[in-house]
Design a protein that fits this description.
- There is one protein chain.
- Helix content is about 45%, strand content about 15%.
- The chain is of the alpha/beta class.
- It has two domains: about 10-205 and about 405-425, Rossmann fold; about 220-405, Rossmann fold.
- The strands form two sheets. It has an eight-stranded mixed beta sheet, sandwiched between helices. A six-stranded parallel beta sheet has the order 11-10-9-12-13-14, sandwiched between helices.
- α3 (about 130-135) packs parallel to α5.
- The N and C termini lie close together (about 10 Å).
- The mean pLDDT is about 90.
Length: about 425
């Protein structure tokens, strides 16, 4: 007699309607599991855009989303006269919010989950241990997913100042039954921290090939997007952050612009950081500085700040080259999606991260460091070699199709869940 399937309980602080790249990726995979017949529930916070959804449950593509009331994060705008005090209160508010989220979600699991079910945490904070312990009391199996090197992997915790909070995070990893890393760099971080290798697994993010795929006619698509068919387009996708290398992107383009009069830059992603509750002031200041540099160079008409668009796949399909000099990632979704659209990629060399996607120069070029001159030289060489660009794009699309397709990654999670279920006897 086959072992009955456990229910999957995914825990994500941000989910629909709150925008998050990790949440979009989670929904893509969880809906795939639901389509296979798994019972899938998401526990998320009734905070920010979801503040009006407290204690409500919605259904999206077979996934049931439960909005749990928590201590909300505040803006503290009235403390602008003291950035020091504002930062400290924000941090304390964040701790209280995290504590309330984990306690209340743990309580929810104890009331609604059954022995042998699986709870998967999409991030780890200082109080995740509370949730994992509550799950264990209920006889649930727990999985921690790591998504960002330098933020939620064990190596990064040891660099924080608050040793007690660091220990709490590490104890959460120790208490979890399984640890999933999106990239080999993340799994290596866990191994170096001394966690049992038998409970560590690499499962990358998936790319939806029905959305992200090459198109035969870029010119027609460009007209639909109000882009000039005669131009060539360099595209960056991601929030306009220093961590993502946005200043390298803009300054590289400024230098390229004089040599390639037909080249334009597309920046797709959040660049409005005026909400002080969610964004530190330096983010807004960086974008303002870059806009001034673009204006000084007289390139305002050649740099397109698209914002957070819901048709990013079309902008990728309409472009010629993907540029991503990021400093820190888990596994960059945008880079994989660009490759799936048949774009050659120029990205920073991050061992175990970007090298997972671009293991050789047939599918893209990885540049060591973040010197603008190095990227200018690399992109110049490629723009002058259209045949090589086309070959790289074709090879990139094939790589993603064979190793990162949604059905491939969904099956890897399904296999993991079955293994856990068999071991726990459910």
């Amino acid at each position: 007699m086959p072992t009955p399937r456990p229910t999957i309980w995914a825990v994500s602080r941000l989910y629909v309607p709150n925008f998050s790249g990790a949440a979009i990726q989670a929904q893509r995979l969880l809906s795939g599991l639901a389509w296979q017949g798994w019972q899938v529930h998401v526990l998320t916070s009734a905070d920010l855009e979801a503040s009006g959804l407290q204690n409500q449950t919605t259904e999206l593509d077979g996934v049931y989303i439960h909005y749990i009331p928590i201590v909300r994060r505040r803006e503290w705008r009235w403390l602008r006269f003291s950035s020091f005090l504002q930062d400290r209160l924000r941090y304390l508010n964040q701790l209280l919010s995290d504590m309330s989220m984990n306690r209340r979600m743990g309580r929810y699991l104890q009331q609604h989950a059954a022995h042998g079910d699986i709870v998967q945490l999409y991030s780890v904070d200082e109080f995740s241990l509370l949730l994992i312990r509550a799950a264990k009391k209920q006889g649930l199996n727990s999985i921690i997913q790591m998504s960002l090197v330098g933020a939620d992997d064990p190596s990064s915790f040891r660099r924080t100042k608050w040793s007690v909070l660091t220990r709490l995070k590490l104890q959460a990893f120790a208490a979890a039954d399984w640890i999933v890393g999106l990239s080999s760099a993340l799994t290596t971080s866990c191994q170096k921290a001394g966690f049992d290798e038998r409970k560590i697994m690499r499962i990358p993010n998936a790319v939806d090939g029905e959305v992200f795929h090459p198109v035969p006619d870029k010119q027609t698509l460009r007209r639909e997007l109000n882009l000039s068919p005669a131009n060539r387009f360099l595209i960056f996708v991601g929030s306009a952050l220093h961590r993502k290398g946005i200043e390298v992107v803009v300054r590289t383009f400024i230098q390229l612009a004089s040599s390639f009069s037909d080249l334009q830059l597309l920046i797709a992603g959040i660049h409005d950081f005026s909400d002080t509750a969610r964004h530190p002031a330096e983010r807004r200041q960086l974008v303002e500085t870059l806009r001034k540099e673009i204006a000084t160079a007289g390139l305002q008409d050649r740099v397109h700040w698209l914002g957070n668009v819901n048709n990013v796949s079309q902008y990728l399909q309409a472009s010629d080259l993907f540029f991503f000099p990021t400093r820190r990632e888990g596994l960059p979704n945008a880079m994989a999606e660009a490759m799936s659209c048949g774009l050659p990629v120029i990205a920073s060399l991050l061992p175990g991260i970007t090298t997972d996607l671009v293991p050789h120069s047939d599918v893209g070029v990885l540049v060591k460091g973040h010197e603008v001159a190095d990227y200018v030289d690399t992109i110049t060489e490629l723009l002058r070699s259209p045949e090589r660009l086309e070959q790289m794009g074709t090879a990139a699309a094939e790589r993603i199709r064979s190793e990162y397709a949604v059905d491939v990654i969904v099956q890897q999670y399904a296999d993991l869940y079955r293994q856990i279920s068999e071991q726990s006897g459910k």
